[in-house]
Amino acid sequence: MKNLSPNALIILGVIALIVIVGVGWGAAKQTSKESFCVTCHAYEKVSWDHGKHPDIGCIACHTKGVIRDKIAGMRKVFLTLTDQVDPHRSNLPSYKDKINDNCIACHMTEEKLALMPFFKERHDEYRKHSPTCMGCHEAGHVVKLRDLRRPEVRLKQ
């Protein structure tokens, strides 16, 4: 390395940066697919497929931005690999506040509200009593199927 010119070091640094960004981008793309999510969250996927939104992917609701999601995801993978949590049975955070924002983004668009102004008025009143959409609505997962992942529920069957 002592014999390399400053230009060669810059070129090596740029190449290393391109490789790191490329690998990171590829990993982010792969881990944003449902096929990746279901490797640990199979019960959630089954409950979703039998729910009200089977055509909507996991990331559409469970996201808070790529960087935050990937940091949280790496933490979950680390906790799983070190046997600190079992993703099949442990309830990990799922950004309930952001999920609510995502519900509103799809179900309360300007176009829908223009066609049904009473819908917004009625829901503004409901939202005074429940901070989230899930306070009144099942979000899309069939709760009975989703909850099969819990050992205490499975043993009662």
Throw out a few tags for this protein.
157 residues; mainly alpha; 2 domains; 10 helices; 62% helix; 0% strand; extended
Question: What's the topology here?
Answer:
Elements (H helix, E strand, L loop, with lengths): L5 H25 L3 H4 L4 H8 L8 H4 L4 H16 L14 H12 L2 H6 L1 H13 L13 H4 L4 H5 L2
Global Rg: 22 Å
What would you call the shape?
Answer: extended
Largest sheet: none
**Number of alpha- plus pi-helical segments:** 10
What is the count of structural domains? 2
Descriptive overview:
- By secondary structure, the protein is mostly helical.
- It has 2 domains: 1-30; 41-65 and 93-155, no CATH class.
- The chain has helices at residues 6-30, 34-37, 42-49, 58-61, 66-81, 96-107, 110-115, 117-129, 143-146, 151-155.
- 9% of the residues are buried.
- The model is unreliable at 153-157 (pLDDT under 50).
Quick synopsis:
With 157 residues, the chain is mainly α. The chain has ten helices and no strands. It folds into two domains: 1-30; 41-65 and 93-155, no CATH class.
